[in-house]
Amino acid sequence: MSFKYSKENLFKEFYAAKEQDVKLSKKKTQDEKETDIYTNRIKFFYDHIELKKKHPEYYSEVDIKFDALLKLYETPNPRDAFYMAFFGMTYAQKKADEDKADDIDANEMKENERRYPIYAK
After folding, report:
1. pLDDT score recorded for residue 119
2. Which of 10, 33, 88, 95 could form a disulfide with 25 if both were Cys (CB 3.0 to 4.6 A apart)?
3. Distance between CA atoms of 41 and 17, rounded to whole angstroms?
């Protein structure tokens, strides 16, 4: 029986690469460390692109577009690249949008509690 990658195997390898990048960072917070250096994550994608060319059978159980992910990780700001690709806005824009929605929800809740005090906690 030949070796086959599973999604779980790949996630574990990627997580290990991410942790190596975090250790290289001199930033203070975990978020800053995770978005500072991408060297090992980029290497992860290059390695899998090459291995998939040589042994496509290893990847028959998964459908991962390593080339597309590599392209996003090689941008100046990978997090913003992902957010632009999936949400059409940067991370900061998406966060502001969510914060605004949370504020609206909180205001609606306060208004409902004012109008219907019987349902207030």
Report:
1. 56
2. 33
3. 5
Give the helix ranges, DSSP H, for the chain.
Answer: 7-24, 30-34, 39-54, 66-73, 78-87, 91-115
What's this model's pTM, rounded to 2 decimal places? 0.79
Work out the pLDDT band at 40, boundaries 50, 70, 90: very high
Q: Which residue from 51, 60, 57, 44 is spatially nearest to 7, judged by alpha carbons?
A: 60
HSE (CB half, 13 Å, CA atoms) of 18? 12
**Across the chain, which distance is largest between two alpha carbons, in Å?**
67
Specify the pLDDT at position 112.
Answer: 65
Q: What is the pLDDT of residue 57?
A: 96
Amino acid, single-letter form, for residue 104: I
Written as six digits, the tokens of 115 are 């109008």
CA 14, CA 40: separation in Å to the nearest integer?
9
